[in-house]
Specification:
single chain, alpha+beta, 5-stranded mixed sheet
């Protein structure tokens, strides 16, 4: 499905609707709606930073494990790229602070708190196209060549893949099998592996939130 909001093209694929149908029809429907809300706020952080730097958003793609923003081909400095990348996780930190205050009065804030913590940690992984990977690339490019930056990113991404696979295996061994957890971590592994195998696919500037 594809539509436009002003000048921004928004698209959502089959797998997003399949995942939405699954979670909304299960006991996890509240978790899913909270996750969609905070993922959207995360992306608002990126979009707000892009707006401050007068860099228009070209398109938004809603996927199974996150939302990707493609900006128009306007160059930003490495420092500004870092600011844009960190603004999404920063908004999750702000939401966490609000939830921590709210938790003093109601346990209903426990789930939003956990979701924002998860979004922050996942997005700060040193893996492209996650925010942590974008930040790591920009910091490396400030001090070294693109070739060296790419090699460091490949190593960090390989390590993360190994750790995620180990987590999945341990969850199976110790019978900690949660369908949503397995699907999410499995989706991350596929995304990272595709980045390692087809690096050209991510040559265009883009950001994702899960």
């Amino acid at each position: 499905m594809r539509f436009r909001i002003g000048k921004v093209s928004v698209s959502a694929g089959f797998f997003f609707f399949a995942a939405a149908a699954y979670f909304l029809s299960s006991v996890l429907w509240k978790n899913y709606l909270w996750a969609v809300l905070f993922s959207s706020l995360h992306e608002c952080g990126h979009m707000g930073a892009l707006r401050v730097f007068h860099c228009p958003v070209e398109s938004i793609t809603i996927g199974t494990v996150g939302i990707r923003i493609d900006q128009k081909d306007l160059p930003l400095s490495y420092g500004k790229e870092c600011v844009v990348a960190i603004c999404g996780p920063l908004l999750n930190l702000i939401c966490m602070a609000v939830c921590l205050i709210g938790k003093r009065f109601s346990s209903a804030f426990s789930l939003p708190l956990a979701l924002n913590l998860g979004l922050f940690v996942i997005n700060m992984l040193p893996v492209e196209p996650l925010d942590g990977g974008r930040i790591l690339r920009m910091l490396l490019l400030m001090k070294s060549s693109p070739e060296k930056a790419e090699k460091v990113l490949e190593v960090s991404q390989t390590v993360i893949v190994i750790l995620l696979i180990a987590v999945l295996l341990l969850s199976l061994i110790f019978d900690f099998v949660n369908t949503s957890f397995v699907l999410f971590v499995g989706g991350l592994v596929v995304m990272i592996v595709s980045r390692l195998i087809f690096p050209g696919k991510y040559a265009k500037k883009q950001r994702i939130c899960r």
